[in-house]
């Protein structure tokens, strides 16, 4: 990072210090999204989060070649998408691109709180409105549990009703070292005031000052959406990361991309989702029924 810019960011955070933990009775909530070829989820993502209390979206589109740009335009015309950044780079500078959106949310769109999300994530709270959590806290960072959703081919993602738990003995179930059943790191929601830098993957955030607490918000993560989408995502993501000279971050993509180059990626997919051990995983409680999202979309789709 440019040190002059870093110093400027820190100076702004110090000036904003008085806002750090002050209750916010009517928070303006902005969501940032970094997308690439997300036509199968993006529209439902926007509809879901608007219903959950998000005021507006800032989207970076990284060279989409499907209908993603058309979906973005549709919701920009509705006033939901506040700004679109057309990112043409091919080296996947995720942290840099998300940071750029956070600063736009903060300076240009007067956000009080920011969620940095991916198109394959649905941020849910039992109250039905994310702002209820934000209004109830004096912290400036909230941690949110991540629940991976088990893919069901032949059904739209919002009807999938099974989530997975971390498996402590992957060898027993013939799982990949980067399977769907790995331990998931929490995601964070943060205030705009005091923001310094988001981490790769949006799992941590640097703030000044900082007070963090756990929240009731859960992130339903659809990181595996079937075999073909998985193969395409790992190949495209791995190809982009290979162009990035910095080797930290994206370890799973690098792993799968190496398997692709060796012709082994398709065989690895069955180990990623535990195809051979599905019944055993279900019996042992690692695959659990959870109808939260299908129930919510039944209402959303009825009102569309």
What's this, in brief?
With 304 residues, the protein is α/β, with parallel strands linked by helices. The chain is 35% helix and 22% strand.
Characterization of this structure:
With 304 residues, this protein is of the alpha/beta class. It contains 10 helices and 12 strands. An 8-stranded mixed sheet has the order 3-2-1-4-8-6-11-5, with helices on both faces. It is globular.
Looking at how many chains there are and whether they match, the oligomeric state comes to single chain
The largest beta-sheet arranges its strands as 3-2-1-4-8-6-11-5
Principal-axis shape: globular
Q: Work out the number of β strands.
A: 12
Helix proportion: 25-40%
Distance between the termini: 44 Å
Question: Which regions have little confidence, pLDDT < 50, spanning 5+ residues?
Answer: none
Major beta-sheet overview = 8 strands, mixed
| Helix-strand string | HEHEHEHEEHEEEEEEHHHHEH
Radius of gyration: 19 Å
What is the SS-derived class? Answer: alpha/beta
Q: State the helix count.
A: 10
Q: What are the main properties of this structure?
A:
alpha/beta; eight-stranded mixed β-sheet; 10 helices
Show the helix and strand layout.
Elements: H1 3-15, E1 29-35, H2 42-51, E2 56-62, H3 68-77, E3 81-87, H4 94-107, E4 113-118, E5 121-124, H5 130-135, E6 141-148, E7 162-164, E8 187-191, E9 195-198, E10 205-207, E11 212-221, H6 227-242, H7 251-261, H8 265-273, H9 278-283, E12 287-289, H10 292-302
Helix pairs in contact: 6-7
